[in-house]
């Protein structure tokens, strides 16, 4: 494995030291990183231009180009991101539970860093800085493997972060940005048992399936969001329209945007007649079930549509006979991300909250709020759609684990 | 998949209902199970005798026979186990965090069952009852796949549990005990994405590796325990002897027993001269490093020895030059289970607690205390040696996940 093995070994060794570095030192490092990014704007923009050049020459999609692009304003927001993370509470060392047992043993459960975290992501170079800052704050060493389309930008940011680490007199392996055009490194990382403690894949479905299938290391998926809004027969019409519009059009390319609208048949006529025109005026392409197709602009939906995360101005609409049909549809086709009901009926709201199996379940609010910042948790590594370890926005605290420490005075077990 | 698919689908559907069944109903079911086990003692013993017969005819190991065997006393302790679990707090529905955001959204993080839990285990039939009871208490549906050597006992216990479920008017798929002599079912379960939420393998290294490599579903490993006791140069001799003896001989076949003893060179002569004789008198076979071989009864250890979980009256001994050599040895060869230092030196104790990377780290106590009951957590599914989701004894609460529920009054995101 040669050079790659050096990274895994270097990272593991660095994590042994870094896990017990105090908050002051970690905050000092974050401060240095934000200062160096500010000083090196020109270097960052020059390297980013190479990625943009490559993307243009290879006719990559407009949306990808937008995600790749860095400018002064985006560098500002990168710096702000680091400073926000620096201001968060350090979870390491907090005592989650403590007790003295009848035999005198004092048992404490304390929060400690995970160790080495591998993050696999695509296109947006700001993830490099965000992920590094979140790992530093939580005392973890990270290995960052971005997409090949952003390699110049990522390596430039990685170099700046490494300079900051060295000037803070810390181990240079604390943050490792790697170049990996052919998944060669990725494949080694997925098998690096004993060196890497957690793998976080962020990106498209195929990347995430690939990682899940091949990893020998625990994975926290940040999967797709097939989110629903259900308009109950007891919904207030204006509120329903506002939420159904916001959940779809405010930012269609993100995971907490709605992909399927469910409408109770008793209010379908009144609500959908108006709603489809609003969507049409907002350039939303509509597909739907038989009963939804009776309304203007609604084309037939296929079975596949109900499973699809469009990430664009497209929406599928289904008319349902009951609250329970809506819940069953969501539990069958949803991805366990964010789901909402609009209703004034107390019992329906409570049933929906109880029975829908998802990271975030809303009454009378847009699904678009699922986000670390909006939930008051600070910056996030992503939104976990799995049930193990953390579910929903994954913040600094979720990058830690626990350890029992036990103070005895000679106890043995009888 | 035919019949197997019915189990996965049946289990998933059952979990949708069972996750919102209240504590009273779940406790009633646990009570019924303990009553039925008591009534059906004869049936259990008859079926167990078939497994014992098979084991004797196939000359299975004595230690396996002992683990397989059920008798009146072991049935008593099965019943007590269920009653203990029934008395524990129900974690489902507890509110972990709650806040009102500036925009008026009320956000709560509540504890919910995981859904469907697959448990893979070997030999001991009481695991069937323990695992079922823990899953019931935490609102989970379980699929229990025991070893083929215990199939009659496990199916008998599964039938009794199913009878109790039916008489409590609950869905019969809440507990599913399956027969799987050739890993056919196991292989299907490891791929049953969308139906099974968690896989817990309990057993030997090869079973656990197999599951980790082939599973598409998140796994919580209950891996081996290569546990160490380090006798520091500031240890009290009598305490060191007590702990080093207890950690090895009190129950050598369990995962929290010590496998390697580390001794600071400055006290090696005084401590080991006496200790090796005590081990010898307790029938402990000794292997060790060059310096340890100078003492009576100590044969040479191989590199493999340091990685080995003997689970028997065998011990490897290493003389080290410093606290840090001990810590490095543990972090390299240990399995992250339970580690202890014996010392009167405050700074050495704190360094050891901080730098050793394991689920439980002890000062001046035997490693043998790592156990849900001893930690005051109640019954456990096992001891997790991984860092994700839960680490150390895995109790009822660790069989749950969380869900954000959000109460709005029409909020949309700007």
Q: Could you walk me through the main structural features you see in this protein, from its secondary elements to its overall organization?
A:
Helix content of chain A is 41%, strand content 21%. With 414 residues, chain A is an alpha/beta fold. The first copy, chain A, has helices spanning 2-18, 23-39, 41-57, 62-68, 72-87, 126-137, 151-167, 184-190, 205-214, 237-249, 265-281, 323-333, 346-355, and strands at residues 95-100, 106-113, 116-120, 141-145, 175-178, 198-201, 227-231, 258-264, 285-288, 298-300, 314-320, 338-342, 360-365, 382-384, 392-394, 400-411. Chain A has a seven-stranded parallel sheet with strand order 10-9-11-8-7-12-13. The first copy, chain A, has a four-stranded parallel sheet with strand order 5-4-3-6, sandwiched between helices. A three-stranded antiparallel sheet of chain A has the order 1-2-16, with no helix packed on it. Chain A is globular, with a radius of gyration of 24 Å. The longest helix of chain A is centred in the N-terminal third of the chain and has 17 residues, at 2-18. Chain A has two domains: 2-222 and 381-407, Aldehyde Dehydrogenase, Chain A, domain 1 (3-Layer(aba) Sandwich), CATH 3.40.605; 227-369, Aldehyde Dehydrogenase, Chain A, domain 2 (3-Layer(aba) Sandwich). The model of chain A has no long low-confidence stretch (mean pLDDT 94). Chains A and B meet through helix 10, helix 13, strand 13 and strand 16 of A and helix 10, helix 13, strand 13 and strand 16 of B. Strand 13 (360-365) of chain A pairs parallel with strand 16 (400-411) of chain B.
């Amino acid at each position: 494995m040669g050079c790659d093995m050096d990274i895994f070994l270097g990272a593991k060794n660095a994590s042994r030291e870094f896990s017990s570095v105090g908050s002051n030192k970690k905050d000092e490092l974050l401060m240095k990183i934000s200062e160096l990014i500010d000083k090196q704007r020109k270097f960052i923009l020059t390297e980013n231009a190479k990625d943009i050049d490559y993307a243009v020459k290879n006719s990559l999609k407009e949306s990808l180009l937008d995600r790749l692009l860095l400018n002064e304003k985006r560098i500002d927001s990168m710096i702000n991101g680091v400073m926000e993370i620096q201001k968060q509470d350090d979870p390491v060392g907090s005592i989650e539970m403590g007790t003295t047992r009848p035999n005198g043993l004092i048992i404490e459960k304390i929060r400690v860093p995970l160790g080495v975290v591998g993050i696999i992501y695509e296109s947006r170079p700001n993830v490099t800085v965000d992920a590094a800052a979140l790992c530093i704050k939580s005392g973890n060493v990270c290995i960052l493997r971005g997409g090949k389309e952003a390699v110049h930008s990522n390596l430039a940011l990685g170099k700046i972060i490494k300079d900051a680490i060295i000037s803070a007199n810390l181990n240079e392996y604390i943050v490792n940005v790697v170049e990996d055009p052919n998944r060669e490194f990725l494949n080694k990382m997925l098998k690096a048992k004993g060196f890497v403690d957690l793998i976080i894949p962020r990106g498209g479905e195929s990347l995430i399936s690939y990682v899940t299938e091949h990893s020998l290391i625990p994975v926290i998926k940040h999967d797709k969001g097939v989110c629903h809004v259900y308009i109950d027969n007891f919904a207030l019409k204006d509120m329903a329209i506002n939420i159904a519009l916001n959940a779809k059009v405010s930012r269609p390319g993100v995971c907490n945007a709605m992909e399927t609208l469910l409408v109770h048949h008793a209010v379908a006529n009144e609500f959908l007649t108006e709603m489809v025109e609003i969507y049409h005026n907002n350039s939303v392409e509509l597909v739907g079930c038989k009963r939804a197709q009776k309304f203007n602009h609604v084309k037939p939906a296929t079975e596949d549509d109900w499973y699809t995360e469009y990430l664009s101005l497209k929406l599928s609409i289904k008319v349902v006979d009951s609250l329970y049909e809506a819940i069953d549809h969501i539990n069958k086709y949803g991805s366990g991300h964010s789901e909402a009901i609009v209703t004034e009926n107390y019992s329906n709201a409570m049933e929906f909250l109880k029975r829908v199996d998802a990271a975030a379940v809303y009454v009378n609010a847009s699904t678009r709020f699922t986000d670390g910042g909006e939930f008051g948790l600070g910056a996030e590594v992503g939104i976990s759609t799995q049930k193990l370890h953390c579910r929903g926005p994954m913040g600094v605290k979720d990058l830690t684990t626990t350890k029992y420490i036990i103070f005895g005075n000679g106890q043995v077990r009888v």
